[in-house]
Amino acid sequence: MTTEFAVNIKIYSATKVSLSMVNYGRELIIETNILQKVKVKRVTEFAEQMKKIQKKVEVTLRKA
Fold first, then answer.
1. pTM
2. Three-state secondary structure call for residue 18
3. Which helix (H) or strand (E) holds 46?
4. What would you report as the CA-atom Rg of the chain, rounded to the nearest whole angstrom?
5. d(CA 14, CA 22)
6. Which of 3, 17, 25, 43 could lock 21 by a disulfide, CB 3.0 to 4.6 Å apart?
7. pLDDT digits (tens, 9 = 90+) for 46-63
């Protein structure tokens, strides 16, 4: 595991989420089978999820 990966998956106490969730809208995982099929969300669903996450982080940071 690289340092960058470790930083991105850590859940921070100030925001209650990881940097990967804030930046990408999902948690990063260590995948052992890279050929495994995964479900892909529609772009609009992803964009809405990102807005909700960013708003939650913004509110949490304002309270800190």
1. 0.48
2. strand
3. helix 43-63
4. 14
5. 13
6. 17
7. 888 889 999 999 999 998
